[in-house]
């Protein structure tokens, strides 16, 4: 009897062993679709790199100082003969400032009317020595990269540095190392500071101030805007920014002082825009083209022109980069064409130019570019 029972147990074990591969295969087959259903709910989605916490803390301290230093200024322009309003030219770069000699010609003789600030990516190898206007004008910088909010942070850093550095900085022009001027400094200065039909205002101290508008592109209803809105996730921007409030515009702008203060003071929208995009949405991730126009549209739409003064050619863009002008294309006719605009003002700057365009551009300084 014991022998019989033992034989039966052995037969049962052999049957289980022989069937186990089938059972395992069946379980694996069933588990695959289950994983596809449950994995997105259990595993966090893959995102692009975010801003390091240390960088964020450093920026918050900087922005707080800039906000406090600007408190009570109201962003208006006080008419003081001894201190004329200045334009802060802010260069955001990750390579050499190849067009510095051209900018030197642009700035020459107008030292009382401008300041220069440069944010250079720490990983960039800058081989060219700074020219006089750029010497000592580099601000503490952090790493930047495309498809991330680091470009917003860099622009805000420049704004904060310029606000802290000189209270007579009245306008803040964001430029890249690939930008060049299309007019003389005198023409540019008067165009930016010209009265742009914004009503006069006071700040409770009885002093009447001119309220100048910011030159920033603010667009809605553009193709692909929804994909950009959900680049961080379907409902991530809510409730602070609804889709009908979401805007797009050129990365390059000229902000009036009150708007520069508004940008460095902001915390509410920044907590949304600083969130990294999903890896799957990388092709729709351009935070620097959305944060500034969305913020200003929500807080002061009447104080903005809704157009930029920096000309860019997107007709044959590649990989999100605009057309790059090469030396054979440089001519007086090109400069005149780049100036043309559908807005009240002609374009004041243009991009994107390759570094070897410097010499042909310098040849046009006296005969075209600075002849307004």
Automatic annotation (TrEMBL):
Topology class, membrane: Single-pass type II membrane protein
Record-linked InterPro entries: BC10-like, Glyco_trans_14
GO CC annotations on file: membrane
UniProt keyword list: Glycoprotein, Glycosyltransferase, Membrane, Transferase, Transmembrane, Transmembrane helix
Organism: Musa acuminata subsp. malaccensis
Transferase found in the keyword field: yes
Subcellular compartments: Membrane
Protein name, entry field: (wild Malaysian banana) hypothetical protein
A single MF term (Gene Ontology): glycosyltransferase activity
Residue ranges the record marks as coiled coil: none
Entry keyword annotation includes Glycosyltransferase: yes
Ranges that cross the membrane: 21-43
